[in-house]
């Protein structure tokens, strides 16, 4: 029998409480415990970025984070409707056709939503280095991020 612990945190703007097994990951809690299936587990070892969520507004790999570590924190997932940056990024990804299979897309959008508005294309690529896409070749992703960040962003020469 595994040990459990009660945790409370803010999830997508709402205070929630869960009884979690101390060895379960944040990915498992979000997907299985709360039904937020936008957070994907691709590799389970922190190399693909598909599980990226925001913890206290910082992009974080949920497959490497124990669920108990969410206690007292603010967690934002791709399903967040209160976060304009995620919504804008989601819309830009659609407008630029920056997805194909879609598996990496939620983690990519969440990570991209925190890129600085003045970023260049090279800055955008560097900020997304931990998010792997096997389908798009990244050009459409960079265009989508640039679109979402607004007119202050310039393409690299």
Helix and strand topology:
Layout: E1 4-11, E2 14-21, H1 26-33, E3 52-55, E4 58-61, E5 74-76, H2 84-95, H3 105-112, H4 121-127, H5 139-149
Parallel strand pairs: 1-5
Antiparallel strand pairs: 1-2, 3-4, 3-5
Helix pairs in contact: 2-3, 2-5
Overview of this structure, please?
- The structure is a single chain.
- The protein has 157 residues and is α+β, with helices and mostly antiparallel strands.
- Helix content is 29%, strand content 17%.
- It contains five helices and five strands; from the N terminus they run ββαβββαααα.
- β1 and β2 form a beta hairpin.
- The chain starts with a strand and ends in an 8-residue tail after the last helix.
- The model has no long low-confidence stretch (mean pLDDT 93).
């Amino acid at each position: 029998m595994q040990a459990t612990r009660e945790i409370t945190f803010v999830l997508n703007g709402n205070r929630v409480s869960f009884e979690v097994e101390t060895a379960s990951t944040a990915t498992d809690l979000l997907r299985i415990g709360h039904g937020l299936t936008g957070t994907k587990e691709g590799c389970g070892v922190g190399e693909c970025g598909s599980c990226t969520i925001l913890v206290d507004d910082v992009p974080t790999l949920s497959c490497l984070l124990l669920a108990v570590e969410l206690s007292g924190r603010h967690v934002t997932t791709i399903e967040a409707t209160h976060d304009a940056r995620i919504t804008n990024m989601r819309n830009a990804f659609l407008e630029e056709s920056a997805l194909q299979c879609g598996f990496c897309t939620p983690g990519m959008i969440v990570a991209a939503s925190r890129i600085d508005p003045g970023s260049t294309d090279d800055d955008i690529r560097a900020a997304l280095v931990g998010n792997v896409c096997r389908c798009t070749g990244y050009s459409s992703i960079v265009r989508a991020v640039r679109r979402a960040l607004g007119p202050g962003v310039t393409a690299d020469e």
